[in-house]
């Protein structure tokens, strides 16, 4: 059994182009003389909720073309040539309309390859995207953080919140004890030692 694995990073000198529409947008990234081409397709949609019409955008389709004859990442590829990997019924990076998508955490999207002997996975990390409602060039709208980042942010702030609550409870307890002690200090104290009581005749 011969297995081959290639990690293909997005190189800095990649060429980018795209199409921006009202409800459909497309981003195409190619590198190493178009040996690798990644196409991302976005859709803007709306649905009715109890609060009215709610719009959002999502990554609806991915297409990745790769050439196993290219020698940078494929050294000894079996049956080298061009192949295409695509997503199947994708709904990813769902974001409210008018906002940008941001995610620092790594996400994995599995693609189906035209070469059935190969499995292709797209790894996304440190992503910031906005395919619709762009108000100015190179300026993102307010970010919508991915669920993983939101959970990590909560995990970072939760111990701090719990620590503040615990400290507040301790301060309140000490204040109540101090007030109670002041109020009872002026009252006549009944001796607790029974030997101090005089015997009744």
UniProtKB/TrEMBL annotation:
<dbReference type="GO" id="GO:0032584">
    <property type="term" value="C:growth cone membrane"/>
</dbReference>
<keyword id="KW-0812">Transmembrane</keyword>
<keyword id="KW-0968">Cytoplasmic vesicle</keyword>
<dbReference type="GO" id="GO:0030425">
    <property type="term" value="C:dendrite"/>
</dbReference>
<dbReference type="GO" id="GO:0072594">
    <property type="term" value="P:establishment of protein localization to organelle"/>
</dbReference>
<dbReference type="Pfam" id="PF01299">
    <property type="entry name" value="Lamp2-like_luminal"/>
</dbReference>
<dbReference type="GO" id="GO:0031902">
    <property type="term" value="C:late endosome membrane"/>
</dbReference>
<keyword id="KW-1003">Cell membrane</keyword>
<feature type="transmembrane region" description="Helical">
    <location>
        <begin position="158"/>
        <end position="179"/>
    </location>
</feature>
<dbReference type="GO" id="GO:0031901">
    <property type="term" value="C:early endosome membrane"/>
</dbReference>
<dbReference type="GO" id="GO:0055037">
    <property type="term" value="C:recycling endosome"/>
</dbReference>
<keyword id="KW-0325">Glycoprotein</keyword>
<feature type="domain" description="Lysosome-associated membrane glycoprotein 2-like luminal">
    <location>
        <begin position="15"/>
        <end position="134"/>
    </location>
</feature>
<keyword id="KW-0472">Membrane</keyword>
<comment type="similarity">
    <text>Belongs to the LAMP family.</text>
</comment>
<dbReference type="GO" id="GO:0033116">
    <property type="term" value="C:endoplasmic reticulum-Golgi intermediate compartment membrane"/>
</dbReference>
<keyword id="KW-0770">Synapse</keyword>
<protein>
    <recommendedName>
        <fullName>Lysosome-associated membrane glycoprotein 5</fullName>
    </recommendedName>
</protein>
<dbReference type="InterPro" id="IPR048528">
    <property type="entry name" value="Lamp2-like_luminal"/>
</dbReference>
<keyword id="KW-0732">Signal</keyword>
<dbReference type="GO" id="GO:0030672">
    <property type="term" value="C:synaptic vesicle membrane"/>
</dbReference>
<comment type="function">
    <text>Plays a role in short-term synaptic plasticity in a subset of GABAergic neurons in the brain.</text>
</comment>
<dbReference type="GO" id="GO:0005765">
    <property type="term" value="C:lysosomal membrane"/>
</dbReference>
<keyword id="KW-0966">Cell projection</keyword>
<keyword id="KW-1133">Transmembrane helix</keyword>
<keyword id="KW-0967">Endosome</keyword>
<dbReference type="InterPro" id="IPR002000">
    <property type="entry name" value="Lysosome-assoc_membr_glycop"/>
</dbReference>
């Amino acid at each position: 059994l011969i297995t081959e694995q290639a990690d293909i990073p997005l190189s800095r000198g990649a060429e980018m182009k795209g199409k921006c529409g009202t409800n459909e947008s497309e981003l195409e990234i190619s590198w190493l003389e178009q040996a690798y081409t990644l196409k991302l397709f976005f859709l803007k949609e709306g649905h009715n909720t109890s609060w009215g019409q709610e719009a959002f955008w999502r990554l609806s389709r991915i297409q990745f073309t790769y050439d196993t004859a290219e020698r940078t990442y494929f050294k000894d590829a079996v049956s080298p040539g061009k192949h295409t990997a695509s997503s199947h019924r994708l709904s990813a990076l769902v974001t409210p309309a008018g906002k940008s998508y941001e995610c620092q955490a790594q996400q994995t999207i599995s693609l189906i390859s035209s070469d059935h002997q190969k499995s292709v996975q797209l790894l996304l990390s440190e992503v910031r995207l906005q395919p619709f409602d762009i108000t100015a060039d190179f300026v993102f709208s307010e970010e919508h953080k991915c669920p993983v980042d939101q959970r990590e942010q909560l995990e970072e702030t939760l111990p701090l919140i719990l620590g503040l609550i615990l400290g507040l409870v301790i301060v309140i307890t000490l204040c109540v004890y101090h007030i109670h002690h002041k109020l009872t200090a002026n009252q006549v104290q009944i001796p607790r030692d029974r030997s101090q009581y005089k015997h009744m005749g």
